[in-house]
Design a protein that fits this description.
Strand order of the largest sheet: 1-2-4-5-3
Number of domains: 5
CATH topology of the largest domain: Ubiquitin-like (UB roll)
Radius of gyration: 32 Å
Number of strands: 19
Order of helices and strands: EEHEHHEEEHEHEEEHHEEEEHHEEEHHEE
Strand content: 25-35%
Helix content: 25-40%
């Protein structure tokens, strides 16, 4: 067996079945020309790709004349793609032709490809055309290797074929730990602008509210990431307020309308699956010991036998946390569990409370003001070190300070509460930023 270090990071092994390389070279003159015609390529080891995609990516073609260097080049292409951790190959010369086996091992880390503003193609067209040009692209890309650049070149060629004066590039989106979250491809050049906004699947009751919220998108830059954010942050809460607790949006669709090359106008449709409308049957609280149930119930504003308002319920849960916060329970947790009755279209919300420990006041620090103002603010602060901490007091203090002390200029206050779970204390930092 002969080893070939074809890549700095991969060791490509030359395998063979019947005739060794040295034997093949010695007997090459004895073999007919047909022995060097590629007749079969087998692929093994991949759990991700179809054999024909791996063969396509290797550039091997049935019927071509192949020699050892051709196989080395094919293995090198696969290894350098970044899609595989190991690539090995073997071959056999026969009177009927050359038979090749490619053995690969998939890398583990892939990330999805996203397309920000390529409105000239549907999602299906993008996937199909890119796969045809970049056979190892299947909607995701390995986080290492040149395949993202290959996708850029393929997208650029697709735009050039349509004579669209745009340039393609991508950015790598990352998680907080630095790992790749996605590859975001976009085109620059002509400005892509949102025209009309429509909602497919919305009923007549919810449609006016959605359309009113969608007006803010008109005339703005078309960016799918922003549209998805609008779906989650603006449109979905409108439905959740009215009891459509299982509503969801699909990816927005864009349709180009007559426009010039410098500004592309697109009509956007948000496909909506509203699901059934649920009524609230009851809110059940459990786990409270330090705060009476009647006190907690005063924080619940959602009403039974009405469409279940999930947005208001979230505010109610925040109010419960605030009730505990004024009593020093800084680690209180409220777990919300919906129990659906899909026959009657009702829901029961169970709020499980874990109160945790009581925390005391630690140290106070005031930043952003001059020494005189700082002294005055500190003298007004009456929550002393060792007192049971009251998060409500801190917010009232800041509000009062803006009215009575910081009366000149405009200020943006920032409250930072640092919880020390070991000592069960809360250090407070108040930063006043002059605007």
């Amino acid at each position: 067996m002969k080893l070939f270090p074809l890549l700095p990071t991969l060791l490509l092994l030359l395998l063979f079945a019947t005739i060794s390389v040295s034997q093949a070279r010695k007997g090459a003159k004895e073999l007919p020309p047909s022995a060097f015609k590629l007749v079969t390529v087998q692929v093994s080891g991949t759990q991700r790709y179809k054999p024909e995609d791996v063969i396509h990516a290797s550039s091997l073609q049935i019927g071509q004349t192949v020699h050892e260097d051709n196989l080395k080049d094919a293995a090198r292409r696969l290894g350098e793609s970044g899609a595989f951790t190991d690539v090995t190959y073997g071959f056999e010369y026969t009177p009927d032709g050359t038979k090749v086996e490619l053995k690969v091992k998939d890398v583990k880390q892939f990330a999805p490809a996203k397309f920000e503003n390529l409105v000239w193609f549907s999602d299906q067209e993008l996937l199909e055309q890119l796969h045809a040009r970049v056979p190892l692209f299947d909607g995701e890309l390995p986080v290492t290797g040149p395949l993202p650049d290959d996708v850029v070149q393929a997208l650029q060629a697709m735009l050039d074929d349509k004579k669209i004066p745009a340039q393609v590039d991508y950015v790598r989106l990352a998680h907080d730990d630095g790992s790749t979250e996605a590859f975001d491809f976009s085109a620059s050049g002509p400005r892509v602008v949102v025209g009309s906004v429509e909602f497919a699947g919305a009923d007549t009751t919810e449609l006016p509210g959605l359309e009113a919220a969608g007006k803010s998108l008109r005339g703005g830059e078309y960016e799918r990431s922003k549209l998805r954010h609008q779906e989650d942050g603006v449109f979905l809460p409108i439905l959740l307020q009215h009891g459509y607790l299982k509503a969801n949006f699909e990816d927005p669709a864009a349709r180009i309308t007559p426009s010039d090359q410098d500004e592309i106008l697109v009509d956007v449709t948000f496909p909506l699956n509203p699901g059934p409308q649920y009524k609230l049957k009851a809110v059940v609280l459990a786990g409270n010991k330090a705060v009476p149930l009647d006190t907690l119930r005063q924080a619940i504003q959602v009403r039974s036998d009405q469409p279940a308002d999930a947005v208001q319920l979230k505010k109610d849960v925040d109010s419960i946390r605030a009730i505990y916060g004024v009593r020093g329970y800084m680690d209180v947790a409220v777990e919300t569990t919906p129990e659906f009755d899909d026959t009657q279209h009702t829901v029961v919300y169970r709020l499980s409370i874990r109160e945790g420990d009581v925390f005391k006041m630690g140290e106070l620090e005031i930043l952003g003001v001059d020494g005189h103002t700082k002294d005055r603010l500190q003298s007004n602060w009456t929550l002393m070190s060792g007192d049971i901490y009251n998060s409500g007091y801190t917010r009232r203090f800041v509000s009062q300070a803006l009215k009575e002390v910081l009366t000149t200029g405009e200020w943006s206050p920032d409250i930072q509460e640092t919880v020390d779970r070991k000592d069960k204390t809360v250090d407070v930092t108040l930063r006043f930023i002059a605007r």
